[in-house]
Specification:
Layout: E1 2-11, E2 15-25, E3 30-34, H1 41-48, E4 56-61, E5 64-65, H2 74-78, E6 81-84, H3 96-106, H4 111-124, H5 140-152, E7 158-162, H6 170-185, E8 189-194, H7 197-202, E9 206-211, E10 214-218
Parallel strand pairs: 3-8, 3-9, 6-7, 7-8
Antiparallel strand pairs: 1-2, 1-4, 4-5, 9-10
Helix pairs in contact: 3-4, 3-5
Bound molecules: adenosine-5'-triphosphate (ATP) and magnesium ion.
Length: 219
């Protein structure tokens, strides 16, 4: 369902952010992406969400080649992929509800349908009682859950989460991971980038480890 085949990504400099990366991910898998700061984790995720294209090699997702996608195909492709960004990218000053509703609004969902789906999603992530609060009024863990809810609202087949427990305490990190496990149990492919080795060790999942843009381990 997701295939990286001999993928290279070179930024001007040149910075060799990815070097000969080959990975195969099955539909419904849950896996971690680990590696030190600057290893290329976010770069790899940017390919999966078609925010960037490989310099060479092939990235195939759900039957589409990211490198060959036209700019008009990208928005439709992104509906298949949920993205939780390293820095959340939530709309400050707007409510929890508005943040989660945004992707559906962009798609022109009918108000009654939108209301129902957002409420359902907020129930699912345990934030229905905060739906009218603004982002500033939430804790880090709550903001993270809003970011996950927004990524899932359009029911993507794939969820990528970049450091979803980055600034959270261990208990909150476990809660976020439990939430991602539940999402995976419902059939979504989940790919999580993290620095947190303890968290990875506690969960018996596939781990892809990268360093200096190269796959160091995949097991
Ligand atoms: N737009 C860019 N232009 C030039 N270099 C970049 C760009 N984006 C990333 N890089 C470089 O590519 C390398 C990989 O960066 P990347 O953000 O993928 O690392 P990361 O593993 O996500 O790190 P972190 O754990 O700190 O988030 C780094 O050396 C970084 O400086
Ligand atoms: Mg990163």
């Amino acid at each position: 369902m997701i295939t990286f085949s001999h993928v290279y990504k070179t930024y001007p400099g040149p910075v060799h952010a990815l070097r000969d990366v080959t990975i195969e991910i099955q539909k419904g898998e849950f896996l971690f992406l680990t590696g030190p700061s600057g290893a290329g984790k976010t770069t790899l995720f940017r390919m999966i969400s078609a925010f960037d294209k490989p310099s060479s090699g092939i990235v195939h997702i759900a039957g589409q080649s990211v490198g060959e996608m036209t700019s008009s195909q990208v928005p439709y492709f992104r509906r298949k992929i949920g993205v939780v960004f390293q820095d959340f990218r939530l709309l400050k000053g707007r409510s929890v509800f508005d943040n989660v509703a945004l992707p559906l609004e962009i798609r022109g969902e009918k108000p009654a349908q939108l209301q129902r789906r957002v409420d359902e999603m907020l129930e699912n992530v345990g934030l229905i009682y905060k739906k009218k609060n603004t982002i500033e009024q939430l804790s880090g863990g709550e903001q993270q859950r809003v970011a996950i809810a927004r990524a899932l609202i359009h029911q993507p087949g794939v969820l990528i989460a970049d450091e979803p427990t980055g600034n959270l305490d261990p208990q909150m990190s476990e809660e976020i991971m439990d939430l991602l496990d539940r999402v995976n149990a419902q059939g979504t492919t989940v790919f999580v980038a993290t620095h947190d080795h303890e968290l990875v060790k506690r969960r018996a999942k596939r781990v892809v480890q990268i360093r200096n843009g190269q796959i160091e381990m995949d097991q």
